[in-house]
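Protocol step 4 of 6: structure prediction from sequence.
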Amino acid sequence: MTRRESRKRRSPFLSLSFRLVATVCCILLLLSYVSVLIDPGIFPLAGFFGLYFIPMLAVNVLLLVLALLRWSSSAWIPVIALLPSLFFVGFFFRAGDRNALPESVVARTDGLKVLTWNVGGFRSGVSDEVEDNIRGVTALVASESPDVVSLQEFRTGDPSGLRRMFPGYPHVREHFFRLRNGDYVGNVTFSRLPLRGDGHLPFRGTTNMVLYTDVEYAGKVLRLYNVHLESNNISLTSLIQDVRGGGYDELQQELAEAHEKVRRSSSRRGSQVRALLEDISGSGLPSVICGDVNDTPMSYCFRSLQHGRKDTFCEAGKGFGATYRVLWPLLRIDYVFVPEDFEVLEHRTPRVGNSDHYPVIVKVHM
C-alpha cells in the first residue's frame, strides 16, 4: 500500500472524528448561551455551561481555523456555534465607544463616583504581606477619591479602627462575621455622602451577604447594595499543582469536587439573587448594585441583575472587563449595575495586585 493510498483510507475516519468533535463542542457552546435563561436553583447544571463559555468559545474558534485550513465541509458546524457569540462577546470585551467622553471631561463632570473591590481579606494579593496589601488598597482609594467605597471580604482584628484606615470617609457601615481566630470578615461601605439608612440581607449557612446603605446624593436618596454572593470555593492552586505533578487520580478527584462545589454554589447564588431583587422591589428607591457576584455574564444571576438596569462596563468600559486577577482575562465576576435613567460616564478596572480581584471604578450621573 502506498503512502497516498493509506492517507486516502484514513481520511474518512479523520473527517468523521473531526465532525464528531466539532458537533460536541458546538452543542456545549450553544448550551452556554441557553444557560443564562435557566435558574441554577432549579437546574444547577446550568451553572457549568455558562462557566465554560470562554474555553468553549476558544475551542470552536480553533476548530473553525482547522476546518478552513483543511478545506473541510464541516466548517459550518463551528460557524453555527460562533454566530450567537456576537451578541455576548461585548459583555467580556469592549473596543471602546468613539463618542465616549475624554478623561479630562469626565473629571470635570459632576457625578457619583463609586469604587467596589473584593479585597480578599488582604491576604490574596501578589504580596504575602497583609500590611503591603492594606497600604495598596488605601493608597488607591486615596488617589481615586470616590464618593462611596464598597469593599467585600474585608478582614480585620479591630473593627473600631475602620475610620482610621480611611480618614476621609466619616460615614461607615459594616456587617462582620467573627472567625474562630478572633478576626472579623465581611462587607464594609465607606461614604463621604450622608447615609439615611442601612441594613443587610443575611444568607443562611454562609458568610456571604449583602450590605445596603441609603445614600443621599444631589438631593435624592438611592440605595447602594454592597454585594458578595456565594463563591465557588475552588482551589486553583490545588488544580495547578495536580497538573504540574502529573497526579491523574488527584486531579480527577479535584475536578469532581470542583464540579460539585460549582453545582451547590450556583444553586445558592440563584436564591441569593432572588432575595436581593425582592429587597430592591420593596425599597421603592433607585438602586445601585455593586460588588462580587461570583458569576460570569453567561449566567442566570448576571441576566437577572442586569434586567432593567445598565451594566456600567457595557456602557463605558474599554478592553477586557475581567476582574479576577488569577485567571485574567477569562473571568469577569465583579460588577456595577445602575438604573436605566442613569448616565454612565466612566468604568475602569485598574490592574493592581493587592487582591485576587481587581477594583471596579465607575462614575455615573443621575
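Step 5 (inspection) to follow. Residues 1-10, 235-243 have pLDDT under 50 and may be disordered.
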